[in-house]
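Re: beginner question about structure tokens

> Can someone show what the tokenized structure looks like for a real chain? I only ever see the sequence side.

Sure, here's an example I had lying around. Input first:
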Amino acid sequence: MKRVFFVCIIGVSLFLQAGCNLFSKGELQAVGMLFDSPMEEQAWGKKGYKGLMAIKETQDVDVYYKENIYTENDVTLAVNEFVENGVNLIFGHSNSFGKYFKEIANDYPDVHFVYFNGNIHSKNLTSLKFNGEAMGFFGGMVASKMTETNQLGIIGAYEWQPEIEGFYEGAKYQNPSVDIYVKILNTWVNKDLAINIYTKMLANDIDVFYPTGDSFSNEVIERAKKADAHTIGYVDDQLKLGKHTVLTSTVQHVDRLYEIAAERFDKGNLDGGILTFDFGDDAISLGEFSPIVPESFQQKIKESIQEYKETGKLPNAR
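And the corresponding structure tokens:
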């Protein structure tokens, strides 16, 4: 019988010792997922939960999840309880979990830990990464094609996001004369700051925006809709928020990556290290196009993406 569990920690059992062999290596028994915020709060969290449910269905295993886990003590308690319940594959749905998993992975040698977008790894610790540069590149091409003022604005969560550089390069490739303004929040969640930056950019004739944080992208899109400006969506296909506002979206299929990781682990093929996924893995895609994007240009982008899948080279490197 398949079950989903929301677990609450009420104590710590001390029976687990480093090196204790509780599991059959390479065989998925149960899965746990940690969220550092309320799971339903953002598209990113919802996709993580969707991936967890897909694993439950396809692998026929019990799954557990916990929300608002963001300190080392929280992680230690949660992992201990997961393992007591037979979990041997644990996902941390944020790059913040990497440093915590690194500290405790050696204590659970038969458990595999997985998190997103980090450079920390070990024998039983894996970082999953999207090739954000590629999705940003094609999004930038669309934005550069559709701007009427030759002014584009990136509202970034963090400077390290590869989609930001990709967007810049793609926009310049499509139209070398376009001006691109970048402002970084240094947080995923400060919606007020994002809107303040958007407002200032709009006042300076920027007419296409790329908000690279799903906690504030919806609000930027709603503001852009009222101002007859345009956006490139982020993480989710956001065309539904305004088909004449959202030109296309850079979509990350987080749920699919979780399924891939679980399948590999169950077959004994999930290595510790950094694994990168891209368009060719169906882990990244562009969303639907707005009807205002010329069909001939839509076709050009689709052909460029297909060529990228085949060659691994972006248009500016061919």
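Each token stands for a local structural state, so reading them left to right follows the chain. The domain at 132-252+288-317 is CATH 3.40.50.2300 (Rossmann fold).
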